[in-house]
Amino acid sequence: MSAPVAGRPTADSLLAHTRTSLPRYLDELAQLVAVDSGSYGADGINRVADWVEGRMYRLGFTVERLSGGRLPTGQAAGDVLVARRAGALAHMDGARRILLAGHMDTVFDDGTAAARPFTVEGDHAHGPGVSDDKGGLLAGIHAIDTLDALGWDQYAELVLLATPDEEIGSPVSRPVTEAAAAGADCALALECARENGDLVIARKGVADLRVTVTGRAAHAGIEPERGAHAALAAAHLVVALQALNGRFPDVSVNVGVVRAGSRPNIVPAEAELHVEVRSSSAQGLDDCRRAVEDLARTPSVPGTRAVVEVTDVCPPMEETAPVRRLAETALRVGAALGLRVGAAATGGVGDANIIAGTGTPVLDGLGPVGGGDHGPDEWLDVSSVPGRVALLAALITEFGDPHGGPRL
Q: Which residues form the Peptidase M20 dimerisation domain (predicted)?
């Protein structure tokens, strides 16, 4: 690391502490992985929230715990946690507020933790959520622990955000995330690193569209000519929508759901398409959405009509100049810690997209190295934990510095 500030922890001191604290990290990770916390299981998520809340209180944070209310399905949502602690520079002009963001939910059903309990075999830990994202969330907590142990508090404020619904698009926590991000100077998202150790500096955004095609019902055997075949119009539209792939730079289109008709002897009067558009830029999302609307205006079957509705938009995490400056700092700091760290873009979305949508620069993939997310072989590289926790702690010292830190 560069060392312009007297008293800033050195690479050696950071690594010495994170290596010593690895057994505690693994013990706490085992506790978290033992709790089923699928996105639709509010009780389990709130048990994880209880654990995180207690841990943050012991670190001297104030914790705001917000009721998740109801998911779009009508099921109860888990709570959202926002933990805050002022630093020594809380009243200094230019001192920075740093947001750490991770999520408590997994994709797994209740019973998975018992069926596939936490284990460590060699350098790999296994268990539901061990990588996505309990290992990353815990790494953020341990980075704070490390700085406390080394006596570093030169920042305006640290904020830890723990969300309950990232795996299903953050329908409940999104406004909380946006508010937390809007008050931060930069953010470190705690999804685990790519399998090769890379950070994430860009994520595609997503627009979800619903296309409703209406026609006219008729008896399919006696007078089909009196009908207007909505399913046939939808089928032609599916082909045309899939053909949009490749038209716009770095934009993908997928018609993932097709529904039509009620009985085989009726010309269908209605059909519905669910379409996903992904793009690395907001402009790409807009351009492709307009192309979908253009296609819908000219249905191929006489007597039919198509209407496009945007049901959800998750903004892209774009590689902006401030993000590049954060990444350059991270690569430099990683090298000083002896880590092989690169920077990558990905098509997957996460809470970092929501943070980026507020204009706050964010780096993602700052948890330990892991892989196999959402599957039975999910793993976390235990040997990567000390280095990645040290990297997180070092970045807090860099980004909190109002003088020597990168320009945002």
A: 201-301
